[in-house]
Amino acid sequence: MTAHAQTAHKITITPLDEKVAVLEDVPRESQYGLKFVGAAIASPATATEAGYAACTVSLTGRGVDGNAAAAPGAQGSAFWSIGIEMARKEGVLSLMGGLSASMVRELVYSGIRMGTYEYFKDKLHAISKGALSREGLLLKIGAASIAATIGSALANPADLVKVRMQAYYPDGSPYRNMRHAFASIYREGATLAASRGASVLAGGLGALYRGVEATTIRGIVLSATQICSYDQIKQSLKKRGMMQEGVPLHLVASTFAGLFCSITSNPVDVVKVRLMNDKKHEYKGTFDCVRQILVKEGPFGFYKGFGMCWARLGTHTILTFLIFERIRYLFGIEAM
Fold first, then answer.
1. How far is Cα 187 from Cα 205, in angstroms, rounded to an integer?
2. H-type helices in the chain, by residue range?
3. What is the pLDDT of residues 59-101, one digit of tens each?
4. Is the CB of residue 98 less than 8 Å from the CB of residue 178?
5. Around Cβ 112, how many Cβ atoms within 10 Å?
6. 308 neighbors 56 (Cβ within 8 angstroms)
């Protein structure tokens, strides 16, 4: 075999359930692209497989209109009670409201935040000339924050439509489908802007981007705890020789990551959902919403529906990382 042939087929052996050959000569740019595709596939797949109905019940339990949430311990506040009640009154399909919008949102949001995380890690490490260590949390948090900011901002319209379609409407949902929901929300904003002599286009887009501040903050908080904790836990367990790369390691790391991100993101989720469903414009903005919840409901108001959040986000986190790692393996890319 020639020297050229030997270098062209240079491989590394990586343990992942069984030993797998991973090509080293795949261009780095192609790897970034494949990672994005893998994340984009993994997250929408999880949205359907990880109990999408739990997300709808979770939002209902938090009180998407700001008033509907039952107090902790009150009748109907339990996760299963709310789900059964919704299915009984509105039909089983009510638990799947906004699924199409959720798929679009996940494709954009999680595809970007997870798919570009390692790209920004590499860039920040290069820019800092190694001052930001690859083993340190600062590099991970910085990369996750940048990726989440971009993903959250771009996905806000789909996120808002998803929340609106999941909301409880006593007289039936005003939205026939995702497309109708987008058009209706845009029209509401455009009509309001026209009545005030403002730009119709700005009003329509403003309606679709309502709550974008809370959405972006939530994306950063969630990603900084979810992705970074998964990355850090995996790294620590492997470094100490406690576990090797493979499904058991992915399961342990993603389980802890799901708990951590549920704890940190639940308060922001409550604020975001309240703002997105504030059709009467009772809140002046994100900080006013935070102030009103704190004054009227106290600190625990930010943790309404935590059990539901953990059931949804914890499961979603575990399956997302398991699927993402498996897709990377099939693509011939090293584990995260």
1. 9
2. 3-8, 28-49, 52-62, 79-90, 99-115, 117-127, 137-166, 178-195, 200-208, 212-239, 247-276, 286-297, 306-331
3. 444 444 444 443 333 334 444 555 555 555 555 554 555 677 7
4. yes
5. 23
6. no
Q: Which two tokens stand for residue 291?
A: 């102030």
According to the model, what pLDDT value does residue 292 have? 92
Residue 13 · residue 21 · CB < 8 Å: yes
Work out the number of other CB atoms within 10 angstroms of the CB of residue 135: 10
Q: What is the DSSP letter of 136?
A: S
Q: Position of tokens 């929300």?
A: 185
Report how many helices (DSSP H) and strands (DSSP E) the chain contains, helices first.
13, 2
Amino acid at 292: Q
| pLDDT value for 171 | 76
pLDDT value of residue 305: 80
**CA 322 → CA 57, 139, 236, distances in Å?**
24, 23, 18
pLDDT recorded at residue 50: 42
Is residue 264 classed exposed, middle or buried when 0-12, 13-18 and 19+ CB atoms within 10 A define those classes?
Answer: middle
Q: Which long-range contacts (CB under 8 A, 24 or more apart) does 10-13 make?
A: 12/334
Tokens of 52: 């999408």
Predicted pLDDT at 125: 94
Cα 156 from Cα 146, distance rounded (Å) = 16
3-state DSSP assignment of residue 233: helix
CATH architecture of 27-331: Alpha/alpha barrel (1.50)
* Residue 231 token pair: 């990355």
Residue with the two structure tokens 């993994």: 42
pTM for the model stands at 0.70
* Largest Cα–Cα separation, the chain: 77
**Cα torsion 320, 160, 310, 87: sign:** negative
Give me the torsion for CA of 52, 55, 61, 64, rounded to 10°: -120
Q: In the chain, which stretches have pLDDT less than 70?
A: 1-29, 44-98, 168
Domain segments of the chain as ranges: 27-331
Could you tell me if residue 285 is left (phi over 0), alpha (psi between -120 and 50 degrees) or otherwise beta? left
Residue labelled with tokens 């011939």:
332
